[in-house]
Design goal:
By secondary structure, the protein is of the alpha+beta class. Helix content is about 45%, strand content about 10%. Strands 1-2-3 form a three-stranded antiparallel beta sheet. The longest helix is centred in the middle third of the chain and has 26 residues.
Length: about 210
């Protein structure tokens, strides 16, 4: 359902919502500010009520054409930014410099990102959720990991890519090629009606 499924009312103060509830029997509060819900007399049992939340989540799992278009565009912007990050890495920029190049390609600021970007060189690329972004030049670095996305109207992309210089150890380059090949085979197998479990099994079979 889109906006046509809702009655949208502009309010000058949050508490005015009480005036619009009237005698409705089925009311629940959805959101993080449960303190506000308590303040307007909403019992805690109706804060993010489980059945309603599950129903909303279920219906949101199937995206509208508009939502698909936003997700596609968010991924396209992120893909361009990832290529820019790779170029900055090959030019010898620091982790922080690669991060800034990524943001510039998105024409965004840190707060605009769906999550804090991860830019890691060499051994740091093996550190889970690495966030330090060193300022030392990456001229001699062999490996770059970028975990970053882009957000558009509340819909986000989330892409992780690993790059290696031609001078990186051959075994690591072979690993990247193998993982890329597995990813490509999974993408080729993905279509409407194919379950996540089936794709997960294909990934498992590809690794073993």
């Amino acid at each position: 359902a889109g906006a046509e499924a809702f009655d949208i009312v502009d309010l000058s103060a949050p508490e005015q919502v009480i005036d619009h509830l009237g005698t409705l029997r089925h009311v629940a509060f959805m959101g993080e500010n449960t303190a506000f819900a308590s303040r307007i007399g909403m019992p805690s049992a109706l804060h993010n009520e489980a059945h309603l939340r599950n129903s909303l989540d279920y219906h949101r799992s199937v995206k509208s054409a508009y939502e698909v278009a936003l997700i596609r565009e968010a991924n396209q912007v992120a893909m361009t930014a990832h290529r820019t990050a790779q170029t900055a890495f090959l030019q010898g920029h620091s982790e922080l410099g690669v991060h800034h190049a990524y943001l510039a390609a998105c024409q965004a600021r840190d707060p605009d990102m769906p999550y804090e970007t991860i830019v890691a060189f060499d051994d740091r690329s093996a550190v889970l959720h690495y966030q330090h972004k060193r300022t030392s030049p990456g001229t001699n670095s062999q490996v770059l990991l970028v975990d970053a996305g882009y957000q558009l109207q509340g819909y986000a992309s989330d892409i992780t890519r690993t790059f290696a210089r031609d001078s990186a150890p051959g075994v690591f380059q072979a690993l990247i090629r193998a993982v890329t090949g597995l990813k490509d085979s999974l993408m080729a197998a993905t279509s409407p009606g194919v379950s996540f479990k089936d794709l997960n099994q294909l990934a498992h079979d590809g690794v073993t």
